[in-house]
Amino acid sequence: MNQEKVKKAVELAEKELQEEEEQKQRDLIKRAIKQTLEKIKEEEQKRDEANKKIKTLKQDIDNIRAGRLDLIAERQEKDDEAKKTSIIEVIKEKEIHHHHYDRWYEPYRIIWKDEPLYLTTTAGSSWTYCDCSDIPLSNTCAYNVTNSIAKDSVAGTYQLDNGDCVTLT
Fold this sequence. Notes:
By secondary structure, the protein is of the alpha+beta class.
């Protein structure tokens, strides 16, 4: 009878050890699943932020293509994130009054952000360097543009730094 009690005690102890081991394995899996779900959530947030930035940049191109610098300026006034995302900052200049109203000729100030800008002369032979790092101190990278010029200047094929070509009509 003593041997049976010992045998049952050993079996019970082995069963408890096995259950503890299985519980550790379940906990390990649950922790892995939880961390995976947290990583998915984090990556989805990054994707959503990237999608919002992409949407803003595409809206900028569409607005320029349509000759609607006013929509970019309005979006940037209302949404600081749109202002940070855009490559250029668009500011409506003082109102000019013609004998007739025509939004095509409203002046906007375009301020280049982030990167230096190289501009060709009208002859196309020389380059002018525009250092945008000093925008707060001077307006060396700010240019006046009208809606009609913006609309007419979009069409073309653009070769990107990675070699891809994009054609806009």
